[in-house]
TrEMBL record, chains A, B:
Source taxon at top rank: Bacteria
InterPro entries listed in its UniProt record: HTH_LacI, Lambda_DNA-bd_dom_sf, Peripla_BP/Lac1_sug-bd_dom, Peripla_BP_I
UniProt-recorded name of the protein: LacI family DNA-binding transcriptional regulator
GO MF annotations in UniProt: DNA binding
Biological classification of the source: Bacteria, Pseudomonadati, Bacteroidota, Cytophagia, Cytophagales
Amino acid sequence: MEHITIKDIAKALNLSTSTVSRALRGSHEINPDTKRSVMEYAEKFNYQPNPIALSLKENKSRSIGVIVPEIDNPFFSQAINGIEDIAYNKGYQVVIFQSHESYEREVINTQHITSRRVDGLLISLSGQTTNVEHLKNLHDKGLPIVLFDRISDEIDTHKVISDNFEGSFNGTEHLIKTGRKRIAHIAASPHLSISKERVKGYLAALAKHNIPVDESLLKYCNYGLQDIEFVIDQLFSNETPPDAIFTASDRLALGCLSTLKKRNIKVPEDIALIGFTNLKVAALLAPSLSTIVQPALDMGKRSAELLFDLIENTSKLPKSYRTFKLYTELIVRNSSVMKSDEE
Amino acid sequence: MEHITIKDIAKALNLSTSTVSRALRGSHEINPDTKRSVMEYAEKFNYQPNPIALSLKENKSRSIGVIVPEIDNPFFSQAINGIEDIAYNKGYQVVIFQSHESYEREVINTQHITSRRVDGLLISLSGQTTNVEHLKNLHDKGLPIVLFDRISDEIDTHKVISDNFEGSFNGTEHLIKTGRKRIAHIAASPHLSISKERVKGYLAALAKHNIPVDESLLKYCNYGLQDIEFVIDQLFSNETPPDAIFTASDRLALGCLSTLKKRNIKVPEDIALIGFTNLKVAALLAPSLSTIVQPALDMGKRSAELLFDLIENTSKLPKSYRTFKLYTELIVRNSSVMKSDEE
DNA sequence: TTGTATGCGTTATCAC
DNA sequence: GTGATAACGCATACAA
């Protein structure tokens, strides 16, 4: 892969590299003729400045790192879509890493990230992560970081989340209002901020409607299909099984739907189902599933925008960091069932 | 984001940068004591070599570019998962671009890719792409390229695909053998290699079983949900609607399932459905959908491995390029229905 | 207006 | 065994 350099142009045109550089950069302190001839030559031989040389010089890479638990998760792939969108417009490249829900892998990834000299980091924590020293260190060293979705209180930076409490509260209350009495909640890893908030919302809705909490209806679940099958079988081995399930994520909703089908438990006839999902999954699952829609794409975009704000203003200190809550939207489906329940 | 350099170490230890460099690289022509003290200092202050400087020197970036139509598509996100896996082990970073099924965007992305000096390119063509000069150019300039899934005959390089013809043939034949007479096929963009191969397989299966081709049952469809709804409504406005639908991708299968549900057409009671999907989607949709499973993860891994082969052997010419076909797997579900149909 | 010199971080090539 | 120097591609302070 050969590339033409400024030096080549200079040689060909009998100029110095600095003159060529100036011409290319559109400097005004240059002879219009020289400029034109340089531009023509550059055009003709498809000159493209070497970004690596620039990076070395300016000590920045024009790339941002993104660490997500799994790329192959509808929520995160859609968030990355949004991130890529913003980065593309800013002329940055997006470098992807997966933690695979492993704390160790996340730590290793943060090391790679810094050794790669990315200009900023977007991260959603792994389900195993309880200690965030690895991120604190980076942040203390001045790396702009934005946390999204799965955040930690211990890091003082911008964060973007959806309104997990409210979404969870609304979803649970919807189930209550449609007559459900035994509402199970399947949450993701108990370490995650999103899990905690969603459980809070679930409990708050039950409390508001004076429904006693049954601990056996609150399950934490990994993302594997076996895990969710196990959890659902547990729920249904209960003396009085749930009449509704509220799941905390895309994957759990999908897994739940599939397991229920396997077990021949009909949704929504036998059991009501509502899930936190991103917009695309919600659309695809319509109309069998009511959903609390998380703005995955927007979360990606918003996070990236905030990160670029930080990157482009690293000089301006001190910053005041904020946590941005994006609205969730409750989409109610199976209206026929709703009606019968509402009587 | 401050980083310690070789120069810093040299200054601190009263050595020259070359000595430090040698010590760090584990050269043998060096005093063991010097080496140890350098290593200790580097360890203590967490020295990390600057990959950008390395890149400039070696004229390679230790990164590979990946261009996919949409990250947020289960097939591609899983393929990227595989790519990331291999790249991670090789110590390469993965830079992601989306063409958004747009030819123009794809061309622009290839320009970005080269300007970024990636060491290789993995690409799956956009649905609009018919002209591949932009890739030919890069390839002629010596950039290692591997095409996967959506390929073009016009580029002479390694390619990795699933056995689209066979998968399609088997899926269609399965529908025929279970008694279906009017089998519709919903394909993706007609420009795509995968579409062509799958249509061929579909037609071949019909031909083998002496089923006349009904042009009105063969539809090409974009990925938007509106598009698929439109197509399905078209199919069912037919005087004699289909009794089976064979869809050509994850997205089409999901969209089809969702639309049929919306229209209150029951699967598999009213209509049999079979789709090309990746493993995870197949698992999630079980047991409602029989699937021709494409090895998305493996395709990502295999493509990345081949790309690294090319990257690491750029000196060895000439190469003989190959097209690797990965097996698809037919997973038959709804066995109860099958039985009744098989009688 | 243009050219020369320097530096970004690293390693390779030469000297000593 | 160690150090000085050049080079990768570019931008810029300074000199002309």
